[in-house]
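Please study the protein below:
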Amino acid sequence: MQDHEDKSIWQELIALTNEFISTGIDKKIDAALQIFNGLFSFIMDHLIKFKADLANTFGQLLQHK
């Protein structure tokens, strides 16, 4: 059950960060990056499971001016 809960929480967080990124508003994009920065500091091993989601999100970020 824990894996299902983790996946649900992760999907919500990815959706939120993608929403921030897609606005094109620098402050919201920065907030999304700060979220990831905080996550990477604490749970890098756990995030490896979601590398495809992360690659998609960071691909969007790299296209931002």
The mean pLDDT is 81.
